[in-house]
Design brief:
Radius of gyration: 13 Å
Oligomer: single chain
Order of helices and strands: HHHH
């Protein structure tokens, strides 16, 4: 149930860059590899993944408060 809620949240709140960067990161790719695949700067990858972490954290806090 918790995983379904997280996946649902991420599918509606992540930008395309954030979603693609997260997917590649979860495959074990480095920031440099991700940047090359997405044709952007490694710093943009870092920023995107930092936003993902904040969004996941906010989702988990919300779930904790509601439960």
């Amino acid at each position: 149930e918790e995983l379904e809620a997280l996946v649902g949240c991420l599918s509606t709140t992540l930008s395309e860059l954030e979603s693609r960067a997260l997917s590649l990161y979860l495959e074990g790719r480095s920031y440099e590899e991700i940047a090359g695949r997405l044709t952007c700067d490694p710093k943009a990858v870092d920023n995107a993944l930092q936003r993902v972490k904040r969004k996941v954290g906010a989702h988990l806090v919300t779930r904790t408060v509601l439960n």
